[in-house]
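Batch manifest, entry 17 of 40.
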Amino acid sequence: MKILVTGGTVFVSKYTAEYFVKRGDEVFVLNRGRHSQIKGVTLIEGDRNHLDGQLGHSVFDAVIDVTAYTSKDVDNLLDSGVSFRNYILISSSAVYPESAQQPFSEETPLGPNQFWGAYGTGKTEAEAALAKRVSNAYILRPPYLYGPYNNVYREAFVFDCAAKSRKFYLPKDGEMKLQFFHVEDLCRFIDILLEKEPQQHIFNVGNETSVSIREWAALCYRTVGKEASFVSVNADIPQRKYFSFYDYEYFLNVQKQRQYLPETKPLAEGLQEAYLWYMQNTDSVNRKPYFAFIDENL
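Output type: structure tokens
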């Protein structure tokens, strides 16, 4: 297939481009050319919001849009004149308001989420702009994505704690639940959509089960070959000062995804892949000053 991936240089878009190159597809990436490119892709150099004919005569079997964060992002790409058979937008579970009944289903009304703010409302607007103009587009709403190329300081932070044999500071009782989805499973599901072209066009995607933050941190430590020792932190201390996630527990209903992708990568296996990548790419992660806050305040 001839595939266009927006981005192609950071985390999800980078992994996606590499995945389809390895599958044997002809992969084009649209970015500003400021970073190294995945081997085997063809670079279309440009800013998606200031295209000047770069895509006007291009025809793709699929556009995989990883970097659309607003309606403007979608409209400007479509206005470029690009032609395609399928369009897949990687949206987010942030489109669901935290006050809605859980688990969130694809039919849950969208709305502002106090934890995700403009990111969530921007994704909602991007979805609406795409649905208005491309009626057969696919929209995917993942929870927390993880795996190789993750430049967000989440599992990498816990790996660092384990490597330094530090105690791990858990918010409250450590029972807050998280739902994950490995970036390879995201690509596998995209692959299935392109092959089967189902009538359902909006999918929550993610692992069927969630995991407590205590269980997740313990798995990260074991990945490094250590056993975690925990310290509980009082709820009065802002969680994001010392921990990688908001104080926000939510869960997606992924039964529609499971009709096509019934098995997902076990979390322990996915964390092992993430750790092996991180050990070779420690400078590629955007670190947060968690250690400084912990040492000074906890």
